[in-house]
Amino acid sequence: MQSANMLLRRIVRSSVLPFATQHGMKKDLFPLSRTLSLSLCLKQDKSCEPSEKLDLDEWKKVMKSGLQEEVNEMASEPKELSSLAAARETLEMWRLAGRAVPENMSEEQLKTFMECPSKSAKKKYLKYLHLKELYKKNDKRKMDEKRERKLEAQDQDSKTDETKKSPFVCLWSRTMDKVYNWRAAQSMIFGQPLVFDMSYEKEMSVREVSNTVRQIVMSESSNRRSVDPFHIHFCNFKDDSLYHREFIKNYREAWDKLLITVTDQCYTEIFPKDKLIYLTADSPKVMKAFDHDKIYIVGSLVDKSIKRGVSLARAKRLGLETAALPLDKYLMWSTGAKNLTLDQMMHILLTLKDTADWKKALEFVPKRKYCDFVNKPVKELKKTLDLISTLKLGKGREKVEKQFAKNYPKRYKLK
């Protein structure tokens, strides 16, 4: 038995141990050899039976299976690496062929690409990655352009600041401010009043009120720079209201220095009713000419956000005369609503006050909304157009067209 034990040790030392040390299995193999030697020592009294050979055979099988598993694991890693390399080569070939393939792909994306069940699925996945990469590049390009524009604007601001510091420009701006303030002060004594009705705060949201205040600020600026400004009145104005807070945000310290009249009273308590005219787009009466003896009222609201007829209902409730601008009379409308902003209304009223010319006044209407200005009423023009359309295939068409060409411009001629 001792001789068998010695023979087993020799076999382990001569053949198995060098192989185990080569593959890093010496630590795992040493306890197995020791247990086998102990098991043989415990069976000294027993005779050599075929079971001992069977145990040795089982041990050999276990050793071979363990070695085979390690060899398979070591061989699987190069296979994965080779498959990833093959996938990258395939993608490079597709890119050269002109297909939508991303330029950079991570290992996770490559594995997902390899796991796609079909070729169409792989194409869709690559197209998705390609579009995602293009969106990222586009966003980066936009950010770079925005950064460049910001830097250019900063450079221009620095240059303008340098020019503003010049003594001549400073003297000119101070002189013009004095002139504008003097005109506004004169208008508070001798000027024609213009009323802004500030009673529509409940009809609008916070954003709409801020837009309205911004338009009124632009209206006040254009009125202050005009040759003959209005005396602006803010009626029905309440302290600590949303209007008040928005005005303080826009004007800051200059709010208390404005040359306008601000009051919480209604305009019917300040001016006689027979001189008041409420300007609203819903009025059935059309304004024919500007009256210097009347006092015009403009509602401080955003027309797009509220229901129609709110300002008209308020004017009727107070028993006031209403009027609408003759937009349909002088403008050929194509698209868009006929509502105007408050600063556009101010420009129109100031031009009418100075020139009494509707063509110059209505130039402040956005040109995207109408085709052109016409000298004759649009209703007559539409009637003629309808007549030509009815006689398009009948007799007398040439005669009607000649008569139409004499009365109206050639661009309205039907072809």
Automatic annotation (TrEMBL):
Regions that span the bilayer: none
This protein's UniProt keywords: Coiled coil, Methyltransferase, Mitochondrion, S-adenosyl-L-methionine, Transferase, Transit peptide, tRNA processing
Catalytic activity as recorded in UniProt: guanosine(9) in tRNA + S-adenosyl-L-methionine = N(1)-methylguanosine(9) in tRNA + S-adenosyl-L-homocysteine + H(+); an adenosine in mRNA + S-adenosyl-L-methionine = an N(1)-methyladenosine in mRNA + S-adenosyl-L-homocysteine + H(+); adenosine(9) in tRNA + S-adenosyl-L-methionine = N(1)-methyladenosine(9) in tRNA + S-adenosyl-L-homocysteine + H(+)
Listed InterPro entries: MT_TRM10-typ, MT_TRM10-typ_sf, Trm10_C_MTase_dom, tRNA_m1G_MeTrfase_euk
GO molecular function, one term: tRNA (guanosine(9)-N1)-methyltransferase activity
Protein name: tRNA methyltransferase 10 homolog C
Chain intervals for the UniProt region annotation (Disordered): 140-160
Localization annotation: Mitochondrion
UniProt-listed CDD domains: Trm10_MRRP1
BP terms from Gene Ontology: methylation; mitochondrial tRNA 5'-end processing; positive regulation of mitochondrial translation
Native source organism of the sequence: Emberiza fucata
Keyword S-adenosyl-L-methionine: yes
Main EC class the enzyme belongs to: transferase
UniProt main location, coarse: mitochondrion
Enzyme Commission identifier(s): 2.1.1.218, 2.1.1.221
Keyword Transit peptide among record annotations: yes
One cellular component (GO) term of this entry: mitochondrion
